């Protein structure tokens, strides 16, 4: 089970899980693992829409599957049959990849009988005409609780998620002719609704499926492809539904019916019914996801991104001009042989040339954190770039998270190499301990927080809880793939020539003068975090909406552009901050620059609190704990990422300026 959980979808189908490779010798496991990863990408994770359509003939069965129940109020997904829905004779769960398991998806078959291009007016899902389905008091209480918590039901047909059509009118004038209808879609359908302290269940589903007829040659049977899946949920009480012995039913006409109330204090009798309507569509199969991916206003997104780009590049240009002009003047003055004393009084960064490369405290921890930051940077860059090319479409469920997890494991080589080389540059000697610290410090914190949160989710019996076999599989991936690769990279990085610092370090440390108030670390964090956060806070809103409000995030082209701007702005702010610090004759820049460069993570935390208070309707303890727990992981990862970018930019800058001046 554990092996199946970590394998992508196609490996589960052909019964070739990762841990079946038992005959491979230990010295050959790395190339085989890389080969398996590349094969996995080609078959499952990197799925380009429009490559593998399914053709249906007339009256072919179109299977309706259930994914999960979700609510933005509780952030706790549940599997479909956690509620007393009608069940088929045999319940079959789909083999899922790692990303689907971590998302809480539990894809399972349902008893809905849908045939291609075959209409159904009304059919009883379970129960007979003289014997409707009875919900016990416990089941009624559970259904009422889920409805009051605003849960949505998510179904799929031919891998297309079901959507509910919402018709909004842009003009609010009295003249109906001037009103323009704006059609939007929300994912899934509401389980029910409340009205005047009464709870009602949507027990009738009107499925509307759209198909595209494929053009074929003469004497060939027409084939159809599903291009849209909509649902209109209705609540119809038992007395208004007329069912016969053949499981057919008759819906009440007009608005004469009353909704199906669920009384949590007693047993409730009801019918679960559905109808199917097919419509032909001009939408081609390759474009069928456009309906789901255009639910937000793209024009506002474009305007916000362009605005951020202009502002960031304008400010970055000003900062670059100031720094370059000031540096040229400083270097020119320092390199004059006459009037040296006046020059040294003018500016102070040359005065600390004998201490600027003095190793900081805790060099092992610093190099380990920076190694994890390099690992994160490589993983995020590759994932965003590949997703921008369309290879991680939302239609391939869990592919993004699966790819990110595997890439983070394999990027341990680069993280270990950079950490090992920096550790040797900082005069470190215990490379084995440093490699272990790099491989376990950040992943250990992430795993510890996730395990604690997972215990709370387990207590709620949510499908969002990672199963124990999957957790064991993740640990095996960590210690079986990531840890050896980090050690491998660390070994070669430590053996490589350390970074060549242009000046020697004095034996006696220089005394640091008293610093002004604006050189305080916290003030530096506030100042340095504004520009990078301003470059990406618009994108942050869409990312938060995708995570916490169950929206699709697909604008990876925007995200790649924002990521590049974030790298540029972090680098420039870091250079400015380290320049000011060295001018103040404070040479302890290693740790300070790493902390200050990640200052935008503080603003991400503030924004997350703002989003929680103003955008989400979470009131219970465990959902709040989950939100702030996962937010803490996001902030920690973002701090590592931006801190690493800023640190290496500042390190290159410091080496460059001290190599440009004459040191006696």
Beta-strand content bin: 5-15%
Ends apart, CA distance between termini: 67 Å
Q: Calculate Rg over CA atoms.
A: 30 Å
Low-confidence stretches: 1-50, 342-346
Describe this protein's structure.
The structure is a single chain. This protein has helices spanning 2-6, 9-13, 29-45, 98-103, 137-148, 290-293, 298-334, 340-346, 363-388, 399-410, 412-425, 431-459, 468-495, 521-548, 556-583, 590-597, 600-614, 621-659; strands at residues 64-70, 108-109, 120-126, 133-135, 152-157, 160-161, 163-169, 181-187, 189-190, 192-195, 198-201, 204-213, 224-234, 242-243, 249-250, 268-270, 272-280. 38% of the residues are buried. It starts with a helix and ends in a 5-residue tail after the last helix. Strands 1, 2, 5, 6 and 9 form a five-stranded antiparallel beta sheet that branches. A four-stranded mixed beta sheet has the order 3-17-12-13, with no helix packed on it. The protein has 18 helices and 17 strands. By secondary structure, it is α+β, with helices and mostly antiparallel strands.
């Amino acid at each position: 089970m554990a092996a199946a959980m970590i394998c992508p979808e196609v490996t589960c189908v052909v019964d070739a899980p990762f841990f079946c490779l038992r005959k491979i010798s230990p010295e050959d496991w790395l190339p085989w693992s890389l080969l398996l990863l590349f094969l996995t990408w080609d078959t499952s994770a990197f799925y380009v829409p429009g490559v593998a359509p399914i053709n249906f003939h007339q009256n072919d069965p179109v299977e309706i599957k259930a994914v999960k129940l979700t609510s933005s109020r509780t952030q706790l997904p549940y599997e479909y049959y956690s509620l007393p829905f009608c069940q088929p004779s045999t319940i079959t769960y789909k083999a899922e990849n790692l990303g689907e398991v971590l998302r809480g998806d539990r894809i399972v078959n349902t008893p809905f009988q849908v045939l291609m291009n075959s209409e159904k007016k009304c059919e009883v899902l379970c129960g007979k005409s003289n014997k409707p389905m009875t919900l016990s008091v416990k089941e009624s209480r559970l259904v009422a609780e889920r409805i009051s918590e605003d849960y949505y039901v998510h179904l799929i047909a031919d891998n297309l998620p079901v959507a509910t059509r919402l018709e909004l009118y842009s003009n609010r004038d009295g003249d109906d002719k001037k009103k323009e209808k704006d059609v939007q879609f929300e994912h899934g359908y509401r389980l029910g609704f409340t009205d005047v302290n009464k709870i009602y269940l949507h027990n009738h589903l009107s499925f509307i499926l759209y198909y595209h007829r494929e053009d074929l040659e003469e004497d060939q049977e027409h084939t159809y492809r599903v291009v849209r899946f909509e649902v209109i949920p209705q609540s119809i009480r038992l007395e208004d539904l007329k069912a016969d012995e053949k499981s057919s039913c008759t819906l009440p006409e007009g608005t004469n019916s009353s909704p199906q109330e669920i009384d949590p204090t007693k047993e409730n009798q009801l019918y679960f019914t559905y109808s199917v309507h097919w419509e032909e569509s001009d939408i081609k199969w390759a474009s069928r996801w456009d309906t789901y991916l255009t639910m937000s206003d793209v024009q506002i997104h474009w305007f916000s991104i362009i605005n951020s780009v202009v502002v960031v590049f304008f400010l970055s240009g000003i900062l670059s001009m100031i720094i370059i002009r000031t540096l040229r003047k400083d270097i020119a003055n320092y390199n004059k042989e006459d009037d040296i004393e006046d020059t040294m009084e003018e500016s102070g960064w040359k005065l600390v040339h004998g201490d600027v490369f003095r190793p900081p405290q805790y060099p092992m921890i610093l190099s380990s954190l920076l190694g994890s930051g390099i690992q994160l940077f490589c993983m995020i860059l590759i994932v965003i770039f590949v997703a921008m090319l369309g290879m991680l479409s939302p239609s391939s469920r869990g592919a993004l998270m699966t790819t990110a997890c595997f890439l983070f494991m394999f990027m341990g080589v680069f993280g270990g190499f950079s950490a090992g080389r920096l550790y040797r540059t900082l005069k470190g000697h215990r490379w084995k301990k440093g490699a272990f610290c790099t491989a376990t410090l950040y992943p250990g914190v992430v795993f510890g927080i996730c395990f604690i949160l997972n215990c709370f989710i387990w207590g709620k019996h949510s499908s969002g809880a990672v199963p124990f076999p999957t957790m064991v599989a993740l640990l095996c991936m960590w210690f079986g793939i990531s840890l050896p690769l980090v050690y491998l990279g660390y070994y070669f990085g430590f053996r490589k020539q350390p970074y060549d610092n242009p000046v020697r370090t004095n034996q006696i440390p220089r005394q640091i003068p008293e610093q002004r108030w604006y050189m305080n670390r916290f003030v530096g964090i506030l100042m340095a975090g504004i520009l990078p956060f301003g470059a990406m806070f618009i994108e942050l809103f869409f990312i938060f909406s995708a995570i916490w409000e169950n929206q699709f995030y697909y604008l990876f082209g925007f995200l790649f552009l924002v990521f590049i701007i974030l790298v540029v702005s972090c680098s420039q702010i870091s250079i400015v901050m380290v320049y000011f610090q060295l001018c103040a004759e404070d040479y302890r820049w290693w740790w300070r620059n790493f902390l200050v460069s990640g200052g935008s993570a503080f603003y991400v935390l503030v924004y997350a609190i703002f989003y929680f208070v103003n955008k989400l309707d979470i009131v219970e303890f465990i959902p709040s704990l989950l939100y702030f727990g996962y937010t803490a992981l996001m902030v920690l990862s973002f701090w590592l990422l931006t801190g690493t970018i800023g640190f290496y930019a500042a390190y290159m800058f410091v080496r460059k300026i001290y190599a440009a001046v004459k040191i006696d």
